[in-house]
Amino acid sequence: MKSRAINLLAVLAVLLVIMAAADTANAQRRRESRGRGMTKAQVNAVINRVEDRVDNFVSNYDKSLDRSRLDGSSREDWLMKRARDLESATGAMHGPRTTKRSAGASISRATSTGI
Hints:
By secondary structure, the chain is mainly alpha-helical. It contains four helices and no strands. It has helices at 2-33, 40-66, 74-93, 100-112. The chain is rod-shaped and about 95 Å long.
């Protein structure tokens, strides 16, 4: 009777370890695919969309500044320079990327360029 209880306890312990390991492996698999599930074509499509929207923003921003009381001032020039910096930083995201680190750096540079 005593050995049967020990065997049952051992089987339960092994099952518990297997279930815990399976759950951990599943969590790691989900974590690995998070943020990395895009193809190069999808990434390029997102970058193109961001570039188009930033270009549209800069164009509208320039027109708005031209209609504002800042038109012709040094403040307008400074604001447009910042907008052009944003435009060039997003353009740099589409350039050649050899590593994930350099891609991350160009994206970080683009997102830190604010107006």
